[in-house]
Batch of 2 targets.
Target 1
Amino acid sequence: MTEHAVVIAGGGPTGLMLAGELALAGVDVAIVERRPNQELMGSRAGGLHSRTIEIFDMRGIADRFLSEGQIAQVTGFGGSRLDISDFPTRHPYGLGLWQNHIERIMAGWVDELRVKIYRAREVTGFTQDDRGVDVELADGKSLRAEYLVGCDGGRSVVRKAAGIEFPGWDPTTSNILAQVEMTEKPPLGIHRTALGMYSFGRLEYEIQGGVIVYKDVGPIGVMVPEADVGRATEPTLRDLSEALIAVCGTDYGVHSPTWISRFTDMARQAATYRDRRVLLAGDAAHVHSPVGGQGLNTGVQDAVNLGWKLAQVVKRTSNERLLDSYSAERHPVGARVLRKTMAQTALMRVDDRTEALRETVSELLSMDEPRKRFAAMMSGLGIHYDLGPGHPLLGHRVPDLDLVTANGPVRVFTLLHDARPVLLNLGEPGRFDITPWADRVQLIDGTYDGAWELPAIGPVSAPVAVLIRPDGYVAWVGDLTQVGLTEALTTWFGPPVTA
Ligand SMILES: Cc1cc2nc3c(=O)[nH]c(=O)nc-3n(C[C@H](O)[C@H](O)[C@H](O)COP(=O)(O)OP(=O)(O)OC[C@H]3O[C@@H](n4cnc5c(N)ncnc54)[C@H](O)[C@@H]3O)c2cc1C
């Protein structure tokens, strides 16, 4: 039986990110992916939020996305745009880029890292014992792994086979999404009716002065609500035509669909992200309405939280208890995404009272403090892991500062390209000795003269040292003492190794 340290079920954005993180750490990882190639039927995610761009920047690959997408102020809540151009980040914006391009770029990166992908193969189940997992495939073969991660989407076979509950809320709305040809020209853009919101657009567009300008040619993307919620069958051209006639009074001569799909506002979250040697990430762990564009971003960030922890456990530098911090940190983030997405779905309803409520929320969000708070949440820049009391940086993302070191200038994010932790000493050089962790943690002596500022929080006092996890979150903040450093190094990167 073929063996890998980690098998990932599903090579969508979450599985690809996780595979990249594990490969960077030198772990033998393989993806099992049902699709024969990375091509994606349907448009799905329309882009990246600021924190996800930062994450790609931390791995040295942000430019690959930025060069293909369109930078814009895309952060929003319940229909209100939230400008983040004043946020302290190198990327105070979002990026318009369709998911098929995002996946292609990620797959290229993973390919460079020589990750094995079993394509056109399907995980059908697994059995786990104390030492590993037998991953069953549809062709009758199986793979043996120390850990299996289900990144296999909302209908996750891994989640179901693990018996992990998926509680939540049934759908209240349903929309057909399609790419089609039309004999008549539909009104491009987003429209509201008493039956809900609908939109027409083209795949190719440019963002000019914050406004989407569609190309004149090419297939038309349609989103239209359907009256029946919870239909079990796949949507057809006839369903689309009927939904268009119900909402617009005409189907604009719709024909020749490239694809037709459906999405709802169903909101569900796995009760836990881990059952012993089996973990869940991305849509396998949480599903919700696409409003606010959180799904792909949350999945990629799940993967970055899990990757280094799983790598350390597989490499035996950390105890497997470290994996409990994955669920402890990411489950609350997912739960918050669900709640805020449900709130936005409610705000999108089309009736006079909801209209009045939306106006009220919009007024509130035009004030500076609420704007910053919500924009930090929706862009991912405000994510905070509860690592206990202390300096405001603790548990927050480290800012991408311009440092000066003995080897010249360097950005903090550049130090994270290999996904290795960093102890950044900004005080007197040479005052730290972390020899027992030298095989795992980089010690960087540097200086930084500027201000420290966090999105939505504002300026914070300059620390003398920070311990930065591979996912870019601050695990320890030092003042003139080194109190707590040994504990933090041991907690996050394993016990000291003595020569
Ligand atoms: C209309 C729409 C608009 C959206 N807009 C946004 C947006 O703007 N921003 C955003 O962040 N998110 C958005 N999303 C959500 C986003 O598309 C998902 O959250 C994202 O794709 C999740 O990635 P994933 O890798 O976790 O799961 P998926 O993308 O579902 O990938 C799962 C992968 O696993 C494979 N697979 C499944 N079962 C098996 C199996 N048994 N064996 C092997 N392989 C398997 C699948 O083929 C697939 O490649 C949108 C979604 C929709 C539907």
Target 2
Amino acid sequence: MGTNIGFGIVGAGLVAPFHLNAIRDSRGGAAMGIFDINRERAAQVAERFAIKVFSSLQEMLEDENVHVVCVATPNHLHRDAVIQAARAGKHVLTEKPPAMSLRETDEMIDVCKKANVKFGCFVQCRVRKAIEAMKSALDTGRFGRLLRADAYMKWFRPQEYYTSDGWRGQKKCGSGVTVAQGFHYIDLLQYLVGHASTVDAQMTNIGHPGISLEDEVLAHIQYRCGAQGVVQLSTALWPGTDVRIEINGTSGTAVMIGEKIQTWKFREERPGDEQIRTFGSSAQATGAGGAADFGHRDHTVVVQDMIDCIQSDREVIIPVASVRPTLEIVLAMYHSAKHNGPITLPISDDDSVWD
Ligand SMILES: NC(=O)c1ccc[n+]([C@@H]2O[C@H](COP(=O)([O-])OP(=O)(O)OC[C@H]3O[C@@H](n4cnc5c(N)ncnc54)[C@H](O)[C@@H]3O)[C@@H](O)[C@H]2O)c1
């Protein structure tokens, strides 16, 4: 292996340029090429980033200069690309959600483990400085007894977003707001306060007529740690406002809006708190009003981590195994909405939730 870690991208759609910009900005990473079943799309992205178009995934996997495969295909197709890449001995970074079922997620984790390759996930909001500060405060008990953990994502996507590509309007492809956009924020709650014990969710479509998936979910989560919270997710609320994550305990409250710390208050002030209150920028868009309306800085941290992990042979910062509980909570929300009542975790897969 030379000094550079070579990346291949599968899927040349909306998110591919975020991966490629992240690789370009990394230390020690180089994009080797891209593959898409739509060759024209691949060619356009390849031209923009001056990289090669692979004629098949197989060709990409046979290229010894490709060490990492970034999977940026629609949600229901991640599994096949991940498994092929891992079996070819490539490290893998998959987009979120890792897959559409726990079964597929476990299979991918297992194949990557047996192939001895690293397997990370782009739930990149975890690396925001505001979230890192919240996580550290939680891990050191600064909130006291944890009481509430809430996420409010009041976003907007126009009708054309859902009709722009076949998979975007189909529930079974993972295009509902809960498993698509909302996945990031359910993941933040799970990452911060831990796994859920019960989930109660209602799903509706309030703003995208003729599209048969939910564009809104209102949910209540009871966490194993004793805290509870609400999750409100929507892509129907024009013009879309920045996501709010709120954590409350008996000794502290922290609120992040977008990527910015809005409230950082603890009974015991510590050195560094004043600086934490400046974390994040209100100038950086975080996706509220448009699908490509966000920066690639968080993706860059995940890409850089993969490069560093390969070079020093350690575990990635966001292993897919750590995202599995998020998928379980998301799936429990679909179960709950379907059966009209609370769901106790753990759950098993029930593919009929996608009908
Ligand atoms: N992390 C984030 O913030 C973020 C943001 C946007 C999208 N995403 C995720 O990225 C993934 C892609 O989303 P998108 O918005 O770019 O979708 P998209 O539809 O714009 O692009 C997907 C591309 O994959 C191609 N494709 C389909 N099947 C393929 C196959 N078998 N092999 C190779 N290429 C194939 C399509 O032709 C298309 O060009 C999804 O999982 C989505 O959830 C993540």
